[in-house]
Each structure stands twice: as structure tokens, then as C-alpha cells.
Design brief:
Layout lengths: L3 E8 L8 H11 L1 H8 L1 H4 L9 E3 L15 E9 L9 E8 L6 H16 L2 E8 L10 E6 L2 E6 L1 E4 L5 H6 L3 H14 L4 H18 L5 H4 L2 H11 L4 H24 L6 H43 L4 H8 L3 H10 L1
Parallel strand pairs: 1-4, 4-5, 5-8
Antiparallel strand pairs: 1-3, 2-3, 6-7
Helix pairs in contact: 1-2, 1-9, 6-7, 6-9, 7-9, 7-10, 9-11, 10-11, 11-12
Length: 333
């Protein structure tokens, strides 16, 4: 059996919500085979996925991949088997991040040689660059010093200038994930545009899912969780989105039930959307309760001020109650 290890890399927290790195990491873990098929098709053909893939403890490489310092840390190692049966590892370095820093190429090389030196294994490296505005993408590291030269090249997938039309034509779930990533970058400061993109993408996926093979439909829950979180919108827009989306999901779930499908991912997606709605309703209820409590406290305070002969204008200023409310309280005493 051939052992091959996949190292998933992520940058440090950008300090903003949502957690883009965590979302990509979770989707890669959930749909690892599809990830390899989309981003590394040549290597994908050499992997025997029937033997499974194993996400190993990241402590395995901690001693030589320890670049945290607010920027990057080794996140996952995935062990896979090749079809040729050779006893060797392939370490696949995956980095999901936005703008690459000045030392990005050098850092990619350092990961390579540390992995190679530690385990003496061949290394497959790929960097996913999610910044849609970055046109210049470094894909190699060059070193030269008085005749001593080194040129290290690695694979790169950049979101910059990716064709939405071509991505939409793909049935791989990571094409939709890339589209969502592109939309997330382009609508960072435009909530209405983000809502429109999110609605369009989700409906497209729901409309195409019934025509996809059985195994493809199982992507639905993981993919929707990713899109829903990477393209976050306000509660108001989220409610509007659910009103539009839930009928599609209910229809799909009903069709799957009528078809006698044992596995029905539509019901899971529907439950997740309905649960979100309930959570928002609960939050609103709590907020209303707090607001009501504050209003009652303001009224009690106003009554005390009235008893102490404060003028209406003074009471209004101190309690933020309007004149009508203050006069009603004065009459009630």
C-alpha cells in the first residue's frame, strides 16, 4: 500500500468574521476527494480513493512547521494511497489565504524542504490564493549565490480572473465554493449585492442538484453550510433569503422522498435553515424582553422623579421617555 500525506495549510486569523480559513478547511475535510479532483486533477488520477484518506494529527509536523506568529500554521495532514502500491508518501501542502506577503514564495519553499528533510518524501505543493484582486501570483522561489542556485516551483490556484461561466459549467462542488469565494471578495462592502449573488448561487445549485448523480447530491449540506457562512448577510436579508430558498429545498426533499431515496441530504439542509430561523426568532424575543425591561425600569424611575417634584422636561431628559408617557405616569400617581 502506498502512503501519501496531504498537508493542509491555512494562514492566521484575519481578525474578521466569518472564519474563511476554517470554512475552507472544513469543506476540504468533508469533500477531500472532490477537492483533489478539482484543484489537482493529475494527482487525483494517481490516488486510490477506494482505500480512503486519513486526516492525521497535525502534531506530526509541528516541530518543523511552526510559522504561527499571527500568520500561518500547519493545519492538517492527510494520508492517502496511490494506485501503484509503492511504499512512499506524497506530502501535499495546501495554503488557503488572501494576499500573499513578500516572503510567501520563500515560505512555501521552507515548508517543502522541512517536510522533505524530515521524512525524505516527495512533496506536492499547491497554494489556494483567494484574493480576487491579486493579479501577480508567485509560483516559484529562486535562490542564487555565487554559482549556487536553486529554483523551487509549486502549484497555484488563484481566484483572480477565474471565469464564473466556466465554473458554473462544472459539476464539482468546489467550483461553487470558488464562486462563493469570489463573490465574498467582490461584495465585502455591498450587502445587497452579496445577497443577490448568494441567492442566485444557492438557487442554481438547488435547481441543478436533482439532475446530478446520487453521490453528487450528498454534497448539498456541506456546500450550503460553506456558502451560507462565507457569504454572510444581515438578519433581515437572511430572512428574505430563506423565504426564497426554503420552497426549493422543500420541493427537493419531497421529490427525494417520493423517489424512495434512502439518503436524503435535502432534509438535512431544510432542517438547518429552519433551525437558523428559530434561533433568530429566539434572539429577537430575548432582545424584545430586554427592551421591555428597560422601558419598565425607565417608567419606575420617572415615577420616583415625579414624586420628587421634577419637571416634565427634566424627567424626559433623564429617562428618554416622551412627553405623553411622562404625563400619563404623572396622572396615574
Amino acid at each position: 500500500m502506498e502512503d501519501n500525506t496531504v498537508v493542509l495549510e491555512r494562514p492566521a486569523n484575519y481578525g474578521t468574521a466569518p472564519d474563511y480559513d476554517g470554512l475552507w478547511k472544513a469543506l476540504i475535510e468533508e469533500l477531500f476527494e472532490e477537492f483533489m479532483q478539482f484543484f489537482a486533477p493529475d494527482l487525483y488520477d494517481e490516488i486510490d480513493f477506494s482505500k480512503g484518506s486519513e486526516f492525521l494529527n497535525k502534531e506530526l509536523l509541528k516541530e518543523f512547521i511552526n510559522e504561527k506568529k499571527g500568520r500561518v500554521e500547519a493545519d492538517q495532514i492527510v494520508k492517502v494511497c496511490l494506485k501503484n502500491g509503492h511504499e512512499r508518501w506524497i506530502l501535499i501542502h495546501i495554503e488557503v489565504q488572501g494576499k500573499t506577503g513578500k516572503g510567501f514564495a520563500k515560505r512555501m519553499f521552507r515548508y517543502f524542504y522541512r517536510i522533505y528533510d524530515k521524512h525524505n518524501q516527495e512533496v506536492y505543493a499547491i497554494a489556494l490564493l483567494t484574493d480576487t484582486e491579486q493579479a501577480i501570483v508567485p509560483n516559484h522561489f529562486h535562490y542564487s549565490f555565487f554559482g549556487t542556485e536553486l529554483d523551487y516551483r509549486y502549484n497555484v490556484y488563484s481566484f483572480h480572473n477565474q471565469s464564473i461561466k466556466k465554473l458554473e459549467a462544472s459539476s464539482n462542488p468546489f467550483s461553487d465554493a470558488v464562486i462563493a469565494g469570489i463573490y465574498a471578495g467582490k461584495t465585502r462592502h455591498d450587502a445587497n449585492r452579496r445577497y443577490a449573488f448568494k441567492r442566485k448561487l444557492m438557487i442554481q445549485i438547488l435547481q441543478s442538484t436533482p439532475t446530478q448523480p446520487e453521490h453528487t447530491r450528498t454534497y448539498l449540506s456541506a456546500l450550503f453550510h460553506f456558502i451560507d457562512n462565507i457569504l454572510q448577510v444581515s438578519n433581515e436579508l437572511e430572512e428574505k433569503l430563506e423565504e426564497d430558498i426554503i420552497p426549493y429545498i422543500r420541493k427537493g426533499a419531497e421529490q427525494q422522498m417520493l423517489a424512495g431515496r434512502k439518503s436524503n441530504p435535502w432534509t438535512k439542509v431544510l432542517a438547518e435553515f429552519e433551525e437558523k430561523g428559530l434561533e433568530r426568532g429566539l434572539e429577537r424575543g430575548i432582545e424584545k424582553g430586554i427592551a421591555k425591561g428597560r422601558e419598565e425600569a425607565a417608567k419606575d424611575f420617572a415615577k420616583e422623579l415625579i414624586r420628587k417634584d421634577f419637571q416634565n422636561e427634566q424627567i424626559m431628559e433623564l429617562t428618554k421617555l416622551d412627553l405623553v408617557e411622562v404625563e400619563k405616569l404623572r396622572e396615574s400617581l
